[in-house]
Amino acid sequence: MILITGGAGYIGSHVARDLLDRGYEVAILDNLSTGHLDAVDKRATFIFGDMGDLHLLDQVFKRLPIHAVMHFSANCLVGESVKLPLKYYENNVGKSINLLNKMIEYNIQHLIFSSTCATYGIPTESLLTEDLPTDPINPYGHSKRMIEMILKDLFQVYGLNFVILRYFNVGGAHVSGEIGEDHNPETHLIPNVLKHLQGKTKYIEIYGDNYPTPDGTCIRDYIHVSDLSNAHIFALEYLGRNQHCTEIFNLGSEAGYSVLEVVKASEEIANKQALIRYQERRPGDPPILVASSDKAKKLLGWTPKLKLEQIIQSAWNWHQKHPDGFNK
Length: 328
Ligand SMILES: NC(=O)c1ccc[n+]([C@@H]2O[C@H](COP(=O)([O-])OP(=O)(O)OC[C@H]3O[C@@H](n4cnc5c(N)ncnc54)[C@H](O)[C@@H]3O)[C@@H](O)[C@H]2O)c1
Ligand SMILES: O=c1ccn([C@@H]2O[C@H](COP(=O)(O)OP(=O)(O)O[C@H]3O[C@H](CO)[C@H](O)[C@H](O)[C@H]3O)[C@@H](O)[C@H]2O)c(=O)[nH]1
Prior knowledge:
Enzyme class: isomerase
Radius of gyration: 19 Å
Strand order of the largest sheet: 3-2-1-4-5-6-11
Subunit structure: Homodimer.
Bound molecules: nicotinamide-adenine-dinucleotide, galactose-uridine-5'-diphosphate
CATH architecture of the largest domain: 3-Layer(aba) Sandwich
Helix content: 25-40%
Oligomer: single chain
Pathway: Carbohydrate metabolism; galactose metabolism
Protein name: UDP-glucose 4-epimerase
Cofactor: NAD(+)
C-alpha cells in the first residue's frame, strides 16, 4: 500500500487516482488545509489529520501495510512564503521531519518527495539539469531544499531509499474533468487567467514586465498534471527496482513560455480577450525556469506527452465544468 500525504490536494489527488487505476492500494493522509474531500478517490483509505501528528502516524504505520510514501503535503506558495517564512519551515520542514522519523521507526524504506524547481534560485543556465547548484531565493524553495538535504543524510545512516522529483510549473486537469486545480486563494498563473476569461475577475495581473526575457515577462516550463502523475508511477517502479536509490529528477517539458504567451494561448482556447494590468514584480520570482528532463527520460523511461495548449485546454474544461471548484 502507498501512503500519499497531501492526497486531497491538486497533484496528490491525480497521482492517487492514477495509482488506484493501475491496481495499487492507496492510503491518503491529509488535513484538508488546502485540499478537498471531494478530490479524494473513494477507493482510497482516507485518514483525516496532520502529517506532523506523531500519534496519528503511529496508528497509520501500525495498522496499514504501507511500503512506500509519496510525500506531497506542504504549503507551496512562493509569495506567501516570503511573507510568512515560519509557516513554511514549520509545515514543510518540521512536520516532514516527524513523518521521516516515523518512516524510519517503522522501517518504511521507500519515499518519493515532491520538490520544486524553486530550489535552483536564479539559474545561470538556460536548461536546468539536476547537477546544477541549488540556491533558492525564497523560503518555500529553502524549505524544499532542506528536506532534500535531510534525505541524503538519512540515506547514509538508515538506508532510506528516495526519489526526489523537482516539478516545474504544474497545470491542467484530469481527463475525466472530475478533479482539477482548486486553490483558495488561487495564485497560479493558468487558473487565474482562466478565471478571468470566465468573467470572474475584471483583469489579469501580470507581475513584472521588465524581466530580461524577450517580452519582459517571466518564463516558466509548464507540465501537465497527468504527465507529472505518470512520472510518479515510473519513479515508484524505479525505486522498487533499485536498491540504494538517492536520485533527483527534474520534471518539466523542456519548453519555456512567458506569462504573456500563456495569456495568449488561453485567449485562443477561451475565444475571448483578456484585460491585462501590469503590477510590480512578485518577490521571490526568478526570471526564467526551464527544465532539462533528460535524466528522467533516460533513467525512468518517462516522457511528457502533453503541450501547453493541452494543459490549458484541460484546465479550461475543468473550470467550465466546475466554475466554483469542488464546491459545485
Ligand atoms: N503546483 C505546482 O506547480 C507545484 C510545483 C512544484 C512542486 N509542487 C509541490 O507538489 C506538492 C503538491 O502541490 P499541490 O499544488 O498539489 O498543492 P495543494 O495545496 O493542492 O496540495 C497540498 C495538500 O497537502 C495538504 N496538507 C498541507 N499541509 C498538511 C499537513 N500538515 N498535514 C496533512 N496534509 C497537509 C493540503 O490539505 C493539500 O491537500 C507540494 O509539496 C508542492 O510543494 C507543486
Ligand atoms: O496572477 C498571476 C499569477 C502568476 N503570475 C506570474 O506567472 C508566473 C508563474 O507563476 P505561478 O504562481 O503560476 O508559479 P511559480 O512560477 O511561482 O511556481 C513556483 O511555485 C510552484 C508552487 O506554487 C512550484 O513549486 C514551482 O516549482 C515554483 O517555481 C510567475 O512569473 C508569476 O509572477 C502572474 O503574472 N500573474
